[in-house]
Input
Amino acid sequence: MKSLRLFTATLLCLLLVQPFHPVLSGPSQAPWYTVELVLFTRAISPGASGEYWPPLIDEPERERTQTATPSGSRQLAGAREALERAGGLTPVIHTAWRQPVSGRTTARGVYIRSERETAPGVALVEGLVKISIGRYLHVDLDLVMHRAPEGSAALPGRYQSYRFEEHRRMRSKEVHYIDHPLMGMLILITPAGGGGSPSAEMDRSPEVQEGPAESPAQAD
Output
């Protein structure tokens, strides 16, 4: 009994001297968010855009991707329907997923792909969407559109490719519009519970919410 009391006293002294630091690992440290996006193409020829399109040398790096958890959230369904009614705009991807969001140096992209194809096995649009967090939320796009040559049908190996690279600083819970001469995207990022993450608390912190974001498109 005396030895037990001595051991307990020694342990208490160690706890008073050595502060307790819980060990956290992996995704549990990162806040979780739901990402929803609608990507649409424009009924415009590349020549009419007045842009210079350099040849596509390489594809987005699919090796550095992460697996996302599909989400049933569809807050942009009304926006997608409005695009379909507008004429000249064709939604080709409407998807949503949940993921842990880390800093920009360690973040990895999520691969997306349209069901519509330009040629057998060749997606009309594909590429990476990378979400990261620092003082703000950030989205980095690296997308490629494969289109049939003007005035001819697309065959395997016979199509033209156009790159869509963009970086945007964002705030959560706001719809943002990202533009490109041949396509565009609506994207909404919201805190997601679960995954062992206190994301709702993180999203209210000054690190995420301080100051205005760049060019937000407010939802009606």
